[in-house]
Amino acid sequence: MNAVVPFDVDPVAGLLNALTRAGIVPSDPAAIVADGRVCRFHVEGDRRGARNGWCVLHPDHGAAGHWRTGARVTWSSRGDKPLTREQRRALNAAMLEARRQRDAEQQAAHERAAGQAAAWWKNARPADPGHRYLAAKGIPPGIAQQTGDELILPLYDVDGRLWSLQRIAPDGSKRLLSGGAKRGRFIPVAGDPHEAAAVLIAEGFATTMSVHLLALVPGAAHVAAVDCGNLLPVAQAIRRPRPDVRIVIAADDDRLTQGNPGLTAAREAAVAVGGEVLRPRWPHGAPLALSDFNDLMLWQQREGVRHG
């Protein structure tokens, strides 16, 4: 989105009006200052601490946007008249500087989180096989370790560098290290994705481990992307050094969620890398609330015992 907003006497009010029309609402409007310098700000609805909003505002013109959505607006004291070539050039340069600052801050945060992850991972103990989350999911610990009562799972890149950790509490609540890199990183669950003839990618750790236990793709390495939004980046990261490897995307089948985001994301990832989609095959009588391969595995186990 790129909109020019009509004339407004006060440049701050004018740019705030533009941002509001575009659905970009600064949490602190005082962050918008007409001093010609690049500023970054938190946008309502973003995670706490994120500064995805940016702006550069002069007394007679300015621009602002939202890195996460890609929305961008401009304001000019000339009203609907286009910005001059010089103004556009200056704003584009400022936008590039804002992006450079953001990228540098993000990389620094990633590096800090990587150091924290390495320390936690080194000092963790092997996970208790009887941990409440593992017991509820019916899976072994695999690569999981434990600190306190939390499971911790490592997120690596394809070069084998540890970047972050996922923490799982006994009640199943999950969180990633603050500032940790996730995009294109994955949790190795079974096998070596650098050597196996096939690589299977699923969303969460429990789902990926369940696909492995069900032996649906024998001989494949299994990795967890953490969520459906990371399926495509992980698939691309796996494909890049191994153009001929077979890639299978194990989909969550979010049948009760509009748009079925799990299946949709799996299909998009598979198409992008020339892979395959594996979705749960629900037996007759399986409740609609079941959505992933862990649900399927547990339901089959319960039914087997019940009718055994």
What does this structure look like?
Pfam families: Toprim_3. Keywords: ATP-binding, Helicase, Hydrolase, Nucleotide-binding. The protein has 308 residues and is α/β, with parallel strands linked by helices. It has two domains: 2-83, no CATH class; 124-307, no CATH class. Helices cover 33% and strands 22% of the residues. It contains seven helices and 15 strands. It has helices at 11-21, 85-123, 132-137, 205-214, 231-239, 261-273, 293-307, and strands spanning 2-5, 38-41, 53-57, 61-66, 72-76, 125-126, 145-147, 150-156, 162-168, 174-176, 187-190, 198-202, 221-224, 246-250, 276-278. The strands form three sheets. Strands 1-5-4-3-2 form a five-stranded mixed beta sheet, sandwiched between helices. Strands 6-7-8-9-10 form a five-stranded antiparallel beta sheet, covered by helices on one side. It has a five-stranded mixed beta sheet with strand order 11-13-12-14-15, sandwiched between helices. Helix 4 (205-214) links the parallel strand 12 (198-202) and strand 13. Helix 4 (205-214) crosses helix 7 (293-307) and helix 5 (231-239) packs parallel to helix 6. Residues 4-8 have low confidence and may be disordered.
End-to-end distance: 59 Å
Number of DSSP strands?
A: 15
- Could you say which structural class the secondary elements and strand pairing correspond to? alpha/beta
Radius of gyration: 24 Å
Q: Give the rounded overall mean pLDDT.
A: 91
Given the structure, what is the number of helices?
A: 7
Assign an overall shape: elongated
Largest sheet: 5 strands, mixed
Number of domains: 2
Strand percentage: 15-25%
Which spans of ≥5 residues are poorly predicted at pLDDT below 50? 4-8
The helix/strand order is: EHEEEEHEHEEEEEEHEHEHEH
The level of helicity is: 25-40%
Organism: Extensimonas vulgaris
Domain Toprim: 199-297
GO molecular function, one term: helicase activity
Protein name: Putative DNA primase/helicase
